[in-house]
Amino acid sequence: MCLAVPGRVLDIGEKDGTRMATVDFGGVVKEVCLEYLPDLQVGEYAIVHVGFALQRLDEESARQTLELFAQLGVLQEEFGDPWERAAAEAGAADWPFAHDIAEQPRHAGEARDSVDAVQEAQQQ
Known about the structure:
five-stranded antiparallel sheet, globular, 5 strands, single chain
């Protein structure tokens, strides 16, 4: 699934002549192109799809949407590590490196549902 996800602009800069931003999606931080919203400022929210900020969004709408996505597990599905997801779906016993991945540092606030599921399966 590929969603348009609201995110908060943390920092703005330029990369190879393109206006770019560091955007926080409820704890997952990604780099985003701002060419479609050239006047977007630090602290504002935008709807982002496939790495492009497409539309400005008010803070309350962004927070509500992020909370709903988090409850539904959509953020982990959209931004989570595909290898972890595959391991969790296959069962931890089928994936020999699950323990190593679980102990690697994560981005601040990133959901750890898949890693927790792998660790729980290993203990059983």
